[in-house]
Amino acid sequence: MANEHNEQAQDIQQEQAEQQNEQTQADVEPANVSVEDLQEQIKKLEESLKLEKARTANAVYEAQKSVERIQRESEKHKDTVIEKFAKELLDSVDNLERAIQAGGNEESPVLEGVKLTLKSLLTTLEKFGVVEADTTRGFNADLHQAVGIDPTAKPNEIGNVLQKGYTLNGRLLRPAMVMVGQ
After folding, report:
1. How far is 178 from 163, CA to CA, in rounded Å?
2. Which of 22, 130, 143, 149 is most buried, most CB within 10 Å of its CB?
3. Exposed (0-12), middle (13-18) or buried (19+): which is 178, by Cβ within 10 Å?
4. What is the DSSP annotation of 125-152?
5. Planar angle of CA 158, 164, 168, nearest 5 degrees
6. 155, 131 Cβ separation under 8 angstroms
7. What is the pLDDT along the chain (182 residues), one digit of tens a residue?
8. What whole-number distance in Å separates Cα of residue 94 and Cα of residue 132?
9. DSSP E strand boundaries for the chain
10. How many Å separate Cα 120 from the centre of its chain?
11. Do the Cβ atoms of 50 and 18 come closer than 8 Å?
């Protein structure tokens, strides 16, 4: 498509150069101008106007396509950056969850602070489209990674979740590591 526009631009430039040559020759000719000559000159000027309009339309089209392409690339880059950042934050989520498990049933101000910190972090991640992958509806190879067999679980059901999985705006960010029944 870009080659087609470049060829059109070259054709337009050649025609303009020819028109300028003809116009300078017409300027050099004597002042005896007939109606036919004027009509011919009007016709050439109208053609020149059409060419300029086409050139302008092509330039506007190319500019719009460039803006659209830049916007697509910008969105893709933004998604990539958010994805990398979110993956790094998931390690902190895992560590906070481990700290809560290590605290056991004992309630302390420190444990309460860790729970609040985890809740705040998860809320922030959800604002940007990061949500926990569902493990309640059975094993799904698109969302879960089976790392072992759980003898107590029903076939194709998730028995134990070793590490939570997360999605970002519907796309898998990290699969859940699960034990599955046979």
Report:
1. 7
2. 130
3. buried
4. HHHTTEEEPP-SS---TTTEEEEEE-TT
5. 115
6. no
7. 556 666 776 777 777 777 776 666 655 555 577 899 999 999 999 999 999 999 999 999 999 999 999 999 999 998 889 899 999 999 999 999 999 998 888 888 999 999 999 999 999 999 989 999 888 888 888 889 888 888 888 888 888 888 999 999 888 999 999 988 87
8. 12
9. 130-132, 144-149, 158-163, 166-168, 171-174, 176-180
10. 28
11. no
Structure tokens at 90: 């998931």
CA distances from 59 to 55, 91, 144 (A): 6, 49, 49
Sheet holding 171-174, edge to edge: 130-132, 166-168, 171-174
Enumerate residues 6+ apart whose C-beta is below 8 A from 143: 133, 134, 135, 165, 167, 172, 175, 176
Site of tokens 């898998």: 172
